[in-house]
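Table S2 (continued). Query chain:
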Amino acid sequence: MTITATQFKANIGKYLDLAASEDILVTKNGRAIAKISDPAPDKQAILDSLVGITSENPVTLDEARAERLARQ
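Corresponding output:
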């Protein structure tokens, strides 16, 4: 949700309550100046969002080191 600084000042309690369930972006003169979010995000949701990012064939530390050194 995106709101103006004026809206935030007028309804701070409402937006602080909403921040527990969604991120709030505060703008001033059309530019983002603050982001209000839950300080304790759901760790399971973060983990679920990462599923599928890594390759299906995991690389060992030695393989990663060898590949990095080969590029130098």
